[in-house]
Amino acid sequence: MTDSNKSRASSSEAATTAEIGKAARQGQFLAVASRAEAEERFRAHLKLGPLGLETVAISSARGRILAEDLAAAVDVPCFDRSNVDGFAVRASDLERAAADAPVRLKLNAELLTPGVTPATTVEAGTATVIATGGMVPRGADAVVMVEHTEVVEDGGDSFVEVVQALVPGSMISVAGSDIAAGETVLRRGLELGSREIAMLAAIGIAEVPVFRRPKVAILSTGDELIAPGQPMLPGKVYDSNGPMLAAAVEELGCEAMSLGIIVDDQSLIEAAVDRAVRDADVILLSGGTSKGAGDFCYHAVARFSDPGIVVHGVSIKPGKPLCLAVTAGKPVVILPGFPTAATFTFHEFVAPVLRAFSGLPALRRETAKAELAVRTASDPGRTDYVLVSLAEKPGGGLAAYPMGKSSGAVTSFSLADGFFSIADDSDMAQAGTSVEVALVGSGKSVADLTIIGSHCVGLDYLVGRLAREGFSAKVLSVGSNGGLTAAKRGECDIAGVHLMDPVSGVYNEPYLTADLRLCKGYGRLQGVVFRKGDPRFEGMTPNAAVAEILADPSCLMVNRNVGSGTRVLIDRLLGTAKPAGHSHQTRSHNAVAVAVAQKRADWGVAIETMASFYGLGFLPLQEELYDFVIPAARFERPAVRRFRELLADPSVIEDLKRLGFRIGSGAAEPSQPG
To answer: Do 475 and 347 lie in a common domain?
Structure first.
């Protein structure tokens, strides 16, 4: 039996005068730190950031934290795809189709099943059999469902009779309509689940870069502790801190190294701590954090001097005995033994460090205003964190009820809706006081920013920068007009727009109202895209090329959707002319470039970035301004303000330039359509 075990062998044994005196003279917390000071001292000795990267197969990636923004190298779908079994047709052939007036189309000698590349162009008056998932052939701009058709034989030829009129695009998923090549699909710091892994598989990624999981050693100490599942004995308590900490660190993307329960033996605890420092990235102990003779954890950690203990005692309740140390660059934390105090101090002091080590963004805790229901006493001299349960008041709003349990209670933190603080210079919070409650638990996550409007890879970049700072964003790509409408209704924080006034040629400003503000973005060069080597475009001006193709019905265009900023530019370029393919509308620059690159169209209008990405020729038309419209009522919201600040950040400006965007372009010069 060790000396320490002898001193505690039995409560019936008489303690010597020397032992009693030693226990009575335990060191006190003579220099407790404030919460802010404790956190500052602790973090000053830590390198807060991911501990390393590794690559894992997507089959092993669930629950891992993504280490890099991932962009799609392919489009999903990567071709215009039929959504139904039926026939690929030209919608213009079916304008007058009806149940009592079917339109007869001659069937082409081709069957388009998934995986088959079309070889036959759908000419006027013809149709091609196509299965669900089949590639839409050149010339077709719609698919009619087989339910609205009947196949007939006449004179040795096969025909299909169609009884339904269609609009261009019917029953077709266009290339890139789900995921566009070059589009950022997953962002750094995201925890990968089944949905994210499905996206990775859909874009052909088999291995993914993730942050290394920090290893966190967990030691529970105390003669009074027994493991859950063991029979309860007098004077014993089940170890709840160990399992709680193991689960909590795993929730933060870490690997828990549970070292079990260590009895109050100085040599055993020191050996366990040394082993943990050697094998783990973070060391967590609970209990034995005071300075008394029986507080073995403190004495085991006090041996370190690089710098060793940086804080011992924090002027908060619960959690005053908290001990923060660093050795070999690794955090060593002794949490209070009482469950509520251990849980609270873990989430306030340790969890932010583990999030940084795991690659997770800083936690942005939600708060709620509430009225304190009962008078609550506090101890002057330290900040008192009061756990509360929230209830709705009959007239609206929330009432906060203190849990009324000590730091030794196991249920306080797990049942609380949140907590508020009472300042260290106050001894009371009166009933009826309005308090700011920091919410805990897995409440509904609300995005910091809602962005609606036109999609742009520059916007992707900006949202990624915000994400790295802990700001979340919901981005809906509905086109410039859709974004402008959402901003007018106050349904979004920011709308990305590039709308040219067809009269003045000025972008975006003419569309503002008194309730909207414009935040200047950047310029994007728009132009005619075509396959390199096409003599109808090579060496031509845009206006000269348009004059040529208007006389060539075999030269197919791919158009943009009505309501998009690019469509305004196209209509200005073409005037009243409607070249072949004019009715073939897509909703993105990417889809235009894909159609041209895959020879389903011969030309269209898109930004220079997409032309370069797909190796297409490019005839500049004019620079457009991609700006951000913000409702005046949301202009000073923190996330909006940070977004505006990023646009003026020199490093952001340089990154946008590298992406091919033009900064400080001023008003774009309108093109002169021919």
So the answer is: no
User: What is the pLDDT averaged over residues 232-257?
Assistant: 89
Residues 6+ positions from 225 with CB-CB distance below 8 Å = 236, 237, 238, 239, 261, 287
Q: Which two tokens stand for residue 81?
A: 């795809």
Q: 512: domain CATH number? A: 3.40.190.290
What global pTM score does this model have? 0.70
Residues in contact with 254: Cβ distance below 8 Å, sequence separation at least 6, in sequence order: 213, 214, 215, 216, 282, 354, 357, 358
10 Å CB burial of residue 456 (0-12, 13-18, 19+) is buried
CA-nearest of 239, 244, 303 to 269 is 303
Residues 588 and 488 reside in one and the same domain: yes
| Domain of residue 122, CATH code | 2.170.190.11
Q: Which of 170-174, 237-241, 602-606 has the lowest mean pLDDT?
A: 237-241
Instruction: Please write the tens of the pLDDT for every residue from 190-210.
Output: 999 999 999 999 999 999 999
Scored b (16 or more CB within 10 A) or e, 117-149 reads: ebeeebeeebbbbbbebbbbbbbbbbbbbbebb
Structural contact between residues 428 and 400, judged by C-beta atoms closer than 8 angstroms = no
234 and 142 belong to one structural domain: no
| Mean pLDDT calculated for residue range 516-525 | 94
Q: Is residue 479 part of a domain?
A: yes
Contacting residues for 147 by C-beta, under 8 A, at least 6 apart: none
CATH assignment at residue 71:
3.90.105.10
Indicate the residue among 325, 358, 391 that finishes a domain: 358
In this structure, the answer to whether residues 415 and 467 fall within a common structural domain is: no
556 and 513 co-located in one domain = yes
For the chain, give the number of residues: 674
Is 87 inside a domain boundary? yes
Residue 425 CA from chain centroid, whole number: 40
What mean pLDDT is predicted for residues 438-457? Answer: 73
Average pLDDT rounded to a whole number, residues 165-171: 95
**Residues 469 and 600 reside in one and the same domain:** yes
In CATH, what number is assigned to the domain containing residue 314? 3.40.980.10
In a domain, 15, yes or no: no
The whole-angstrom separation of Cα 293 and Cα 262 is 17
Range scoring the smallest mean pLDDT among 314-318, 356-360, 561-565: 561-565
565 within some domain: yes
Structural domain boundaries, residue 419? 367-439
Most confident of 157-166, 298-307, 400-409: 157-166
Number of domains in the chain: 5
User: Which of 243, 228, 317, 320 is closest to 284 using CA atoms?
Assistant: 243
Q: How far is CA 350 from CA 48, 61, 119, 166, 665, in A?
A: 12, 25, 63, 61, 47
Give the contacts of 35 (CB within 8 A, at least 6 positions apart). 314, 315, 316, 348, 383
pLDDT higher than threshold 60 for residue 572: yes
- Evaluate if residue 11 carries a pLDDT over 80: no
User: To which residue do tokens 């959707």 refer?
Assistant: 561
Which residue, 338, 279, 283, 345, is CA-closest to 312?
345
Q: Are residues 185 and 225 in the same domain?
A: no
- Angstrom distances, CA of residue 564 to CA of 30, 480, 519, 585: 68, 6, 19, 11
Examine the fold and report which residue of 418, 439, 460 is the final residue of a domain before the chain moves on: 439
Residues 287 and 427 reside in one and the same domain: no
674 has pLDDT over 60: no
Query: Is a pLDDT exceeding 50 seen at residue 13?
Result: no
The mean per-residue pLDDT over the stretch 486-493 comes to: 84
Instruction: Give the model confidence (pLDDT) of 618-672 as tens digits.
Output: 999 988 899 999 999 999 999 999 999 999 999 999 999 988 888 864 433 333 3
| Residue tagged 């209008």 (tokens) | 605
